[in-house]
Amino acid sequence: MKVLVTAPIKRFPKVIKELNSFSDLTIKEYLDQKKLIKIIHEFDGLIPNARIPIDKNIIEAGRNLKAIYQPSLGYEHIDTIALGRKKILFGCLAFDKKFKKTLWSTAEHTLTLILSLIKKINYANHEVKKFGKWDNRKFHIEDLGTKTVGIIGLGNIGSKVAKLSKDFGANVIAYDPYVVSKKYKQLSLDKLCSQADIISVHVPFNKETKNLLSYKQFIKMKNKVCLINTSRGGIVNEKELRDFIKNNKNFMYGADVLEGESPFGVQNNLLVKLSKNHNNILITPHIGGSSFQYMEKIFIHSAKKLCHFLSK
């Protein structure tokens, strides 16, 4: 079986060994759509990255494709309807409930963003590195244990962030119309936005969640709220957030995802531009699930699942 991997696996020898054990392997990390559509017909299996859309045109061009496994929780970039029409087997981490419970990297990264913002780590580091300043009086630093943390989405990652926040001593409230929890007080979205000091988003991107948080919710939030998005770009309305932050200097925003994010750069993103002159914005390049241990584990899992699909 010929397998193409466009996910970034070259730094994981164990993963490559696993894939070579059952396939004729080709690795082309972050291959763009134009190049992918020209060669996809050569392959039986595909492990794609989560940044380049796998649309119906690519799927139609993949006349020999038998299976795709996406090594991430999100799969909104893949046209699963087109896959179904061609009877191409599809799987991703979101479907493997037992396996995904073992993954904590994104939850850890969420806590990192929260703590970095409320502890003013980015701002303080900038003052020391650029100006050699050593005056802590200008930083209004907060403790997580004194805060109310609002979790939007109590799924795999959201429930882990809730647990970690509670372990720090925080009061945890939640909004999730599909999950009933006995551990945390559940509120409407508007009430959560008005009561939480820290709001963390953990929902999939779809028609229901697109622009889930926009100006209507921002104006209900507390003056010094800390909003975190490690879920998907497009769930937070970035244009309205950009405009809101301009007039609300105490608003803190931490993101590991952006609308239209690309491995080829995000220099034109509205929030990236604003962040250059705003210490309360912290953006990382979708590294929440990028720890070496995490990625090695999910890529090996993905290889084994693809092998299973191709053997059917």
Fold and architecture overview:
The chain has 312 residues and is α/β, with parallel strands linked by helices. Helix content is 36%, strand content 15%. The chain has a seven-stranded parallel sheet, with helices on both faces. The protein has a five-stranded parallel sheet with strand order 2-1-3-4-5. The mean pLDDT is 95.
Attribute tags:
13 helices; 312 residues; 2 domains; Rossmann fold; 7-stranded parallel sheet; 36% helix; 5-stranded parallel sheet; alpha/beta
Summarize this entry quickly:
The chain is α/β, with parallel strands linked by helices and 312 residues long. Helix content is 36%, strand content 15%. The protein folds into 2 domains: 2-97 and 292-310, NAD(P)-binding Rossmann-like Domain (Rossmann fold), CATH 3.40.50; 105-283, NAD(P)-binding Rossmann-like Domain (Rossmann fold), CATH 3.40.50.720.
What topology does this entry show?
Elements: E1 2-5, H1 13-20, E2 24-27, H2 33-39, E3 45-47, H3 56-61, E4 67-70, H4 80-85, E5 89-92, H5 97-100, H6 105-118, H7 121-131, E6 148-152, H8 156-167, E7 171-175, E8 185-186, H9 189-195, E9 198-201, H10 215-218, E10 226-229, H11 238-246, E11 252-255, H12 270-275, E12 281-283, H13 292-310
Parallel strand pairs: 1-2, 1-3, 3-4, 4-5, 6-7, 6-9, 7-8, 9-10, 10-11, 11-12
Helix pairs in contact: 1-13, 6-8
* Binned strand content: 5-15%
Please state how the strands of the largest beta sheet are arranged side by side: 8-7-6-9-10-11-12
CATH homologous superfamily placement of the largest domain: NAD(P)-binding Rossmann-like Domain
CATH architecture of the largest domain: 3-Layer(aba) Sandwich
Largest pleated sheet: 7 strands, parallel
Q: At the first level of CATH, what is the class of the largest domain?
A: Alpha Beta
- Low-pLDDT regions: none
The radius of gyration computed from the alpha-carbon positions, rounded to a whole number of angstroms, is 21 Å
Our count of helices gives 13
How many individual domains? 2
Q: Looking at CATH, which topology of the largest domain would you report?
A: Rossmann fold
Task: Report the count of strand segments.
Answer: 12
* Structural class estimated from helices and strands: alpha/beta
Shape: globular
The H/E string reads: EHEHEHEHEHHHEHEEHEHEHEHEH
